[in-house]
Amino acid sequence: MRKLYVLLFLSAMVVFAFGFAKFDGKNANTLAAKTATVEMTSPTGNGASEASPTYTTVTVVAGGTVSGTITYAGTAPAPAKLQVTKDVAVCGKEGHIDESLVVGAKKGVKDVVVSIKGVTQGKAMDALGTSFVLDQKVCTYKPHVVIVPVNKPLKILNSDGILHNIHTYGKKNPAKNIAQPKFKKELTETFAQPEAIPVKCDVHGWMSAWIIVAEHPYYTVTDADGKFTIADVPAGTYTVEFRQEKLGTQTKQVTVAASGTATLDFAYPAK
Ligand SMILES: [Cu+2]
């Protein structure tokens, strides 16, 4: 009799397992979408409203493109030269400039973070890349602005063979203050909340960078000519945010047609 019970129990397990596997395979997208909806609307009242909105990957059919140029409407001063006051043998191999505002020959503004606000579904996060690196090289952060998705590892490299110190000043993410001695070529950090986080080195006061923690893949940074492109945008009307550390944050509306390209140029007023 007892054997019979065991047999029945095992049979039930097998049926359940197969049933679940089938459901899981066929309805994975539906399940993920439902879970996302529940999480976003759940009135838990325990601080969940501050959590990053859930992003769901879907197949973007006939996605459009937003592209444009961010300029400075005025004559920008040449970036200030920074004085190397420590570890000159390594840090002085190249000249250093203040990268907090870099305006190109045609007034294009470099390193403006461009993002589409409030996107909850669309292309895969991999559109931002699969490897995210902030290098410390000749005592400069490269790049000056790095985008990393939430909870994805950011590799922090020390290419200089001297002591650097990563000091992040997040408000939503815990601040980090990590010594990276010369033998520590690589360390990895993750960030759980979307935020623009200033980074400084306590050893070399002139070193400065930004880590942009992205909750969805519709983020980019302008190139040296101030140009940007964001592709595979589902058709619709969006608010696009421009963020520059010295010039501030601005938003603009844009409507993206299916398979279309919307041009969105913006000029920061002269300061
Ligand atoms: Cu340093």
Q: Strand tally, please? A: 21
Bound molecules: copper (II) ion
Cross-sheet strand order for the largest sheet = 9-15-14-11-12
Distance from first to last alpha carbon: 87 Å
Shape: globular
Beta-strand proportion: 35-45%
Under the CATH scheme, the architecture of the largest domain is Sandwich
Biggest sheet record: 5 strands, mixed
CATH level 1 class label of the largest domain: Mainly Beta
**What proportion of the residues is helical, as a percent range?**
10-25%
Specify the number of helices: 3
H and E order: HHEEEHEEEEEEEEEEEEEEEEEE
Give the overall average pLDDT: 85
SSE order and pairing:
Blueprint: H1 2-26, H2 28-41, E1 56-57, E2 64-73, E3 81-82, H3 88-91, E4 96-97, E5 113-116, E6 121-122, E7 132-137, E8 140-142, E9 145-149, E10 154-158, E11 164-168, E12 176-180, E13 186-189, E14 195-201, E15 208-214, E16 219-221, E17 227-233, E18 236-244, E19 248-256, E20 261-263, E21 266-269
Parallel strand pairs: 1-6, 2-20, 2-21, 7-10, 9-15
Antiparallel strand pairs: 2-17, 3-4, 5-16, 5-18, 7-8, 10-13, 11-12, 11-14, 14-15, 18-19
The protein binds copper (II) ion.
